[in-house]
What we know:
The structure holds two protein chains of two kinds.
Chain A: H1 19-25, H2 27-30, H3 35-45, H4 52-79, H5 85-90, H6 94-100, H7 125-149, H8 153-181
Helix pairs in contact in A: 1-4, 3-4, 3-7, 4-8, 7-8
Chain B: H1 3-26, H2 31-55
Helix pairs in contact in B: 1-2
Amino acid sequence: MWIYEKKLQYPVKIATPNARLASLIIDALGGPDGELGAATRYLNQRFSMPSGKIIGTLTDIGSEELGHAEMVGSIIYQLTRNLTPEEITAGGFDKYYIGHGTGVFPCAASGEPFNAFAISSKGDAISDLNEDLAAEQKARVTYDNILRLSDDPDVNDAIKFLRQREIVHYQRFGEALRSLTE
Amino acid sequence: MNRSELMRKIQELSFAKLEAQLFLNTHPECKMALDFFRKTVDELDMAMTEYQNKYGPITADASMGDTWTWIEGEWPWQQNHTGMTGRER
């Protein structure tokens, strides 16, 4: 069960809409290494795990990832406020806009809709935890790539927070994996 | 403490609590982390109560008074959720 708290994990306050950044950052929600895949991967992997230590880790990190999906959705929402048709087209947001307007639709920056294969639940603790370690690193790289292409300080502030969380989760998943072989 | 400052404090305490919680999952015998977790839970409870009494519910359970205040006001992704504007931190 989950209970909603009417707050973001970390503030998202973007002063300047930017269609181009929105069309890139959507990857952090619905891309193969995005937050939607992360949350559902960990929350679904839990059922076949052998210990409370690992189940607790997947439960709490999976729940935190739901909050990150909300943060990325907030970034997209704020970046796409009051855009003109010219701005939508110039920013390369037009292909997304045709199908989804400024609604938040989980897809990769290249346009592929969210694919459930990103969930990668194998029913094997060693396989799944190694998957999770790689997933955190891949998500970290996606945030690094966003930071290379974005010069908006408001966007980058929230993205840097999300990037840092991948590193902490990698640490905790490493400890969970080692607990299997201790 | 104004509304945005109090929300910021709640976000900081929630973050500290979650960090301790994740750490405790893989270090359940760490007494220092357990003490920190419990102290942070108490501080967070106090800050949440103060915020919800003054500014409205963070969870639906905290909707007080004769009307259903859960659906009132801005939602977290809306720019004026706590009265902060862009660039303000």
